[in-house]
Each structure stands twice: as structure tokens, then as C-alpha cells.
Write a structure and sequence with these properties.
This protein has 162 residues and is mainly alpha-helical. The chain is built from 7 helices and 3 strands; from the N terminus they run αααβααββαα. It folds into 2 domains: 1-35, no CATH class; 51-162, Winged helix-like DNA-binding domain superfamily/Winged helix DNA-binding domain (Arc Repressor Mutant, subunit A), CATH 1.10.10.10.
Length: 162
Amino acid sequence: MTLPFDPIDEAARQWGTRWSRVPAMHAVTSLMRVQQLVIGRLDAILKPHGLTFARYEALVLLVFSSRGSLPLGKMGERLQVHPTSVTSIVRRLEAAGLVTRQAHPDDGRAVLAEITDDGRALVEAATRDLVAADFALAALDDEDLQALSALLTPVRKAAGDF
């Protein structure tokens, strides 16, 4: 259902009659809505592969690792998610035969996730579909995408993201 008006513009108009910082409210509301839209589209693209975007990111992280394996704790740090979320993601990927879990050879307390050949093949197929769909950002050209990334970098840095 398409509305005949922008509901975020209307919310901002009403916000301005009560409170200050309308530009900040408008920007954060727009950002959160776009995040919902993009994640929904990415998950729809990945669903035929049996993946969510979170699981896809975990597999890609393992592909990027030098040995195809990482400790779950390091995965959580790099994906910037809670340890219980990583455990859940890895369990689902393991159940699908896309990763294996094993004891860390040097740290008896740590568990390694290692991508399987099936996992690597699935990353390749899913990535082709994501690239073909411009990661759900086809409404923006490359210059706009670079500008968007540059615009968001100071927010991420100020939050301690890196």
C-alpha cells in the first residue's frame, strides 16, 4: 500500500509543533525505515538460499578468514552482535551443513566455526543474487552510495564502531 503522502514528513511536521530537533528526528526515522526496507528485501533475496542476512554475513566472514574458520567470540566482535546471537546463527548454519563447530586447538574454552564446501558454494550463489539486486539499493547510483557511506561514517565512529 502506497500512501499519498510521506508519513515521516508528516511525523516531523507534528513533532515540530511540540519539540525541537526536527532534522534529527526526521533523519533517524528515515534511517530506521530504510533499514527495515533494506533488511526485508535482502532477507527476501536470501530466503530461496535458506539464509537470512545475518547468517549470510556470518558465512561471508568465514570465507574472508584466512583458514575458513574463526572462534565464535571473534565472529561476534567482527559482526558486532551479542555472543548468544552468534551461537544461534552458527547452530542454524551447522544444522544446514554450511559450517561445522569444533574445539579450538589452542584454547580449550573456545569453539571454532568452520565453513564447509557447501557453505562456500552457497555464499557464491547468494552473493550473485545480492549483487544482481544491487543489495536492495538500486535506487542509488555509485556516487550516491559512496556519499551515503561517507555520511554515516562519523556517526559510526562517534558510537565507537571503530
